Amino acid sequence: MTLRKATLLLTGFGTLALLAVLYLSTHSIIDTSFLILEQAQTRRNVERAKNAVNDELQKLDELLVDWAVWDDTVLFMHGKDKSYASSNLNDRTLASLRLSAIVFLDTRGRVVLALGVDPGKGTRAPLPEGLLDRLQPGSSLLVARQAEDRLKGLVQLTHEVVLMASCPILSSEATGLSAGTMVMVRPLGSREAAAISERILLPLTLEPADSPLPTDLAGHGRLALGQTRVQPLNQDIVAGAAVMSDIWGQPALRLVVRQQREIMAQGNQALRQSQLWLIACGLLFLAALFAFLERRVLSRVLRLSGQVEAVNVSGAELGQVDMPGTDELSTLAGRINSMLNELQRSRQSLAVQYAATEAQEQYLQRILDSIQAGVMLVDPETRRIMEVNAFAATLAGRTREEIIGSMCHGFVCPSAQGQCPVLDLEQEGEQAVRKLMRADGSTRSILKSVSRIDRGGKPILLETFIDVDDLLKAQEALARSEETYRTLFMNTGTATILIKEDTTISLVNQEFEKLSGLPREQVEGRMSWTEFFSSEIVEGMLRHHVKRRVSPELAPRNYEAEFINAAGERRLVRLTVAMLPGTTTSVAALEDITEQKQAEEQLRHQAFHDALTGLPNRLLLHDRMERSLESARREGVEIGVLLMDLDRFKDVNDTLGHSMGDKLLQMVAQRLNSVVRRSDTVARLGGDEFVVVMDGPTSAEAVARVAGHILDTFAEPFVLENHSLHMGLSIGLAMFPAHGDTPEVLLKNVDLAMYRAKERGRNTFDFFTDELNDQVVHRLMVATGLRRALASDGIEVFYQPKIMEPGRRITGAEALVRWRREDGTLVQPDQFISVAEDTGLIMPLSDIVLRIACTQAQAWRQAGRKNFTLAVNLSPRQFQHPDLAARIRAIVEETGLPADALEFEITESTLMNNQPETMETLKALVGMGAAIVLDDFGKEYSSLGYIKKMPIQAIKIDRSFVSDLPNDEDDAAIVQSILTMARSLELRVVAEGVETAGQLWFLTNLGCREFQGYYFSPPVPTEEMTRLLLSPDPFARLDATPQA
Question: CA dist 91 to 118, 734, 933, Å?
């Protein structure tokens, strides 16, 4: 950079920096002052907005007092002014009040009248969402009893913030007892915000306090209650925001005021004018300073600089400079002229010396370039390369110019810096193999020689070198190859040997020492490989040995053989043999596969046998059945298949534990094997299921005899530690080819036969029949259709009324499920309930029935039948689900039906099961408030002892005891006993199946009061049941008094 530029830049930038500092300081001070004024004004405007909202609230309070403290309102609340609402609360009046809701509540907090209004349209509208939740009994809005205790303020509803005021309803004199509370609600929406904005002449936004902040205000976090935030939004707009609390002191409403930044605009305009004057003055000063420096200093320096640059350093004469005057620059010009004269004399002396040196250098270079080896001269003081010949430069891949002047260390000297053998270690010379660093980063090995010489009285180092890289690489490759192959051989991880043509082992590795049990010194060169194999297989292996040396393709490369180690132990090995190329020596690898073969055999056994009993599993059973069936087809004989399932094996696991259950299964397997023939197959399918396959020839009679023999054998108890267990078997029988011609079909059909045996009472056997298969297909079709019905609203509920005598009042009904097929036909429950239980559909089916019935029962109760009770049946299978009570509770809460309006009917078999889960579920239902009714009482296990212990509240006499009344004396005695027992236990009794007036008369005389049956009504759909409930005398067609 020139002096002129530097001077101009320094003075220019200095002046500009000073102006910038003045500009920024004045700008900061004035800006801060105006910003404080702007913030103060914005805070005042926010307070104006808050006062405007409070004014609205005050007006609402005054309006409320006018209405609440009024004799007419008191009369209305006491029910004495029927025209109050129509005359005072018409649409026109409500529209003028600008309210969104007006609510009248009695002294107990109950709503007497609640009107919702659309303030914009002046028409009726729904009450604001969440309003009535704020007016629940006990609310602080409803506790005031004097006019001066009334409340007003902001209230946060579900979707909006409103102005709300409450006042006790008093006479016009504001005396006496309060007749209730009156509440007025005025919205605070965009329309009200616009009205307030127009009144205070400021843009105003009203938002719920918990709503997200506007985007332009969201950068500083949420507003706290009582905090007023002022925030400039841009160059033209500033915003102020604050949060107002509700009646209970919680944040409710956020006010946002946006206004023009007029104060800042006026301040900025005044600041700009003053700064423009400051800049103008600074620029004038800068221009005057520049003119003085240019005239007195810069132009003369530039002239002197030009004269110095014009001196001809390459010519014969250097020339002179000229600077008139008497100042410092003129003195400098004279001294420059003296220096130029001295320089001229030195140039002439150097020209003579240069000519002599150049001739000497050319002579030396011709000598160096004629040598066909690398030559390099090094200055011992600087250790820099002084000269290098062409051969060395070519070998290094560099030019002479690149090499000369560089350090010798690192170029052809591998020693650490400061460890030069000649210069540092004071050796006379050096001769060694070194690495030459080439230009491309590669290296070449050289044989280097270093010696000291003297040149013109100055000591230098003479280094010569020849290229030995290719020779060394060949030697190293040979050594590495030999070491690599030896390392691989010795460390393959497999026993490996080298074998000579005469079968002698010439080399072994460590793994072979371990395999043979002999040290290598005893094997190498002393033993033949034939000594490690039995004589039975050595002859064949020797033939391979000879053929392999004729041609490797004539002998196998891999085969297995039995190896005998030094201890005489026989190990199975896999041999891999190959010839070493170009020799008569072969290499053999011996892999010990003894454990592998044993593991494979063990895995094969585990894959096809049951781990617990050791019996064939399903896979092996299927394979053996395939073979047996193929043999039977060829020979034209029958085969028998028996499928056995232990009866109540689950009880053993539950009571004695799974370990005892496993021991029992092992004993069962042993007992089955002791019964059948050795040629028969006994297999375990899993769990407690076993299969016996009787190979042919056999017959159905023979298979039946074997099944009977098995049952007889199992009649003897199993003794497990201190327990004696009697285990029954349910056995299914099937024959090939009569009952199936594949393993899959036979096992499926024998499974059906086994379940038929269980249904017949367990501990028996049964043959497969075609009817069994038809039943399975039918049940499958029923299950498929039932699933579709559950998914497509195909389930309906019918109701059979329960009657109370005398008076024939309908007190409730039993809910009975019906399945409406797609063609419109109704399916009775006895045709699909058992399928639903077996397939697990009973739970979703019961949920649907309970939900429909509870919903309808609640509707009838709300329609006036407040004491209506609903009876719902529970299946024994449902009690196997531990969440049954929770599912019922959820449905009852969902439908709103009181739990004490429910009765759950269960059978005696459910109670007799007496499982802990069943009792816990029953207690949970009773704890909800529901009643438990014992259905079909007397049909199964009727016992006074267990009924006393069970959580039941009522019993239903089975229809089988009612159908022959009053003629059957035995049934009459049973019914009378049931009624007597129920009275002693304080249980309600319902007689079901009442179909005649005689039955009703007889039961009534015995003291029975609740009835159900076709005499009154069959199960009917919802519409018919509703008609019966609404009818004043639904059974007028019957005799008024039961008669015999």
Answer: 10, 86, 56
Q: What are phi and psi of 859, to 5 degrees?
A: -65, -40
The span from the CA of 848 to the CA of 854, in Å, is 10
C-alpha atoms less than 13 angstroms from C-alpha of 204 in its C-beta half-sphere:
29
Is the domain 491-587 a CATH 2.60.40.10 member?
Answer: no
pTM: 0.40
CATH architecture of 59-210+225-260: 2-Layer Sandwich (3.30)
Alpha helices (H) in 260-298, listed in sequence order: 262-293
Site of tokens 């699909």: 832
Q: Measure the CA–CA gap between 451 and 460, rounded to whole angstroms.
A: 9
Listed residue (670, 671, 762, 758) closest to 709, CA to CA: 671
Token pair listed for 137: 């009994």
* Dist CA 850 CA 867 (whole Å): 18
The residues of the chain that CATH labels 3.20.20.450 are 841-1018
The tens digit of pLDDT for each residue in 439-474 reads: 777 887 788 778 788 776 788 878 888 877 777 776
* d(C-alpha 989, C-alpha 933), whole Å: 9
505-516 average pLDDT score: 91
DSSP string across 718-775: EEETTEEE---EEEEEEEETTT-SSHHHHHHHHHHHHHHHHHTTSS-EEE--HHHHHH
Intervals of CATH 3.30.450.20 along the chain: 371-473, 491-587
Identify the pLDDT of residue 317.
65
Q: Domain 371-473 carries which CATH code?
A: 3.30.450.20
Which tokens is 562 given?
């039995």
How far apart CA 697 and CA 983 sit, in angstroms, is 67
- Spell out the alpha helix ranges (H) of 383-464: 390-396, 400-403
DSSP 373-384: SEEEEE-TTT-B
Q: Which of 717, 707, 688, 716 is nearest to 764 (CA)?
A: 707
Assigned token pair, 236: 């033209």
Q: Is the pLDDT of residue 616 over 90?
A: yes
Query: In the β-sheet with 689-698, what is the strand arrangement from edge to edge?
Result: 681-686, 689-698, 638-646, 729-736, 765-767
Could you report the per-residue pLDDT of 322-348, keeping only the tens digit for each?
A: 777 777 777 777 777 777 777 777 776
Q: Which CATH code for domain 841-1018?
A: 3.20.20.450
CA distance 837 to 726: 29
d(CA 182, CA 114): 10
Angle at 584 (CA atoms; ends 582, 589), nearest 5 degrees: 100
The predicted-structure confidence for 538-548, as pLDDT tens digits, reads as follows: 888 888 888 88
Please tell me the CATH code under which domain 609-768 is placed.
3.30.70.270
Characterize the bridge pairing of strands 718-720 and 729-736.
unpaired
* Res. 665: pLDDT tops 50: yes
CB under 8 Å to 476, separation ≥6 — which residues? none
